[in-house]
Prior knowledge:
- The chain is an alpha+beta fold.
- It has helices at residues 32-40, 54-66, 78-88, 105-109, 116-129, 158-168, 175-187, 245-251; strands at residues 15-19, 46-48, 71-76, 95-99, 133-142, 145-150, 153-155, 192-198, 201-207, 209-213, 235-240, 266-271, 273-277, 282-285, 288-292, 295-306.
- Helix 1 (32-40) runs parallel beside helix 5 (116-129) and helix 2 (54-66) packs parallel to helix 3.
Amino acid sequence: MLAVTAHDHVPPGPVAVLANPSAGRGRHRGLLPRILERLGAAGRPVELLRARTPAEAEAACHAAVADGAGALVTVGGDGTVHRALQAVAGTVVPLGPVPAGTGNDFAVETGFPADPAAAVEVIADALATGRTRPVDLARLSRPGVPDRWYGAVLAAGFDAIVNERANRMRWPRGPRRYDLAIVVELAKLRPRRYRLSLDGVPQEVDAVLIAVGNVASYGGGMRICPEADPHDGLLDVVVGGRFDRRTLMRVKPQIYRGTHVTHPLVRAYRARTVELDTDGITTYADGERAFDLPVTVTAAPAALRLLR
């Protein structure tokens, strides 16, 4: 693992840009020409990566880094950042996330302005001056498959189940599909017995919600792990215990403020390594489908350089 420090120079090479035109339901699509122009004014060639699918986007990022890109800039939300992380984590190539999605938790929680135009100014200034800053990531592992990186939060409970349900549904389109998935899964809500190990200390917990956070928020500002700090070398683990449907719905609005952790059924922990297992759960990292349980999550201090 490459540890980096603040104010490292940006390596030579062009700036590769990964843009998701459908991010944020397309509302920032018109900004892309101005973003490319502003990045070009920082004094480097700018190359727009071509990709039609998330898999192609990830492959394009890997290819750009292998071909000598000096920096990678994403225009989109947490899902777009997630694809880029797989190529730049643990390398000297810095990342500049322009928050243009429905969920921009990683960019905002690591200090970038929520306004895309303002974020581009920060990134372009960092490119021009050769300024980077280190930030932690989380490494996600499962036997038999390559590791993956994430920057925000791993969902491994009710929220992951809802995501999985919504992704299987063909109707309705848009946010109503997610709302319907919540209704369907609430009707089947039940605690599961999780096997949880924190820095090698095992325990079993009955829970409906488990999140492992590198930063505080996910899902567009839901502060599920409100004390998470992406500079402390630790992961925050929040466990929501034996909630019934009514109590879960009453507590859910508190997640936006981070006050849910005061509920007697919620427990919060910190650890460098988290092992997690139960039956029938597919995890979601940065809002993207990840691994079936069991998984191991490891804090990776200073694994990424940011253009800030």
